[in-house]
Amino acid sequence: MRQEITIETISCALLGSLPCGLIAYFSGNDAVMDYVQSLSMPRELLVYLFVLFIFHLINVLARSKIKFQPVKGTLNYRISNVIDLVGPSVVGVYRVIAGILLVLSPVAMITDANPQAYAYGVLGLSFASIIILSSSWIQVVTSESRL
Q1: CA–CA distance, 95 with 74 (Å, rounded to integer)
Q2: What mean pLDDT do residues 2-23 have?
Q3: pTM for this structure?
């Protein structure tokens, strides 16, 4: 599991942290904030993506731990297949978010001296850690179920 966490952290850094770093290097901090604001989504869309993420986790858990295999042609089979197609894309969106949080959270904690910025920084790092751990778990479970 340690190897998967390392790989997920590197993936998040490549998808979210590296673009922020490159933008900061070539265009400055204001451009990074413009980039992050351009990626920000309405709350309703974040909730929707979170629900899809939870469905994907449940689907992976059901197939791996409970050994749930829906009967071909049933509604459960179709729903499970749709979640199998959509789930990895949603995980990818969350990897980008985690990568951005891995960069911006410590920067906010260092550059802004007020307690609220520190609390948001800790919250951002916690959220990024949860994303990395859950996507690592998904990778472990889905790779085991393919064998």
Answers
A1: 32
A2: 90
A3: 0.80
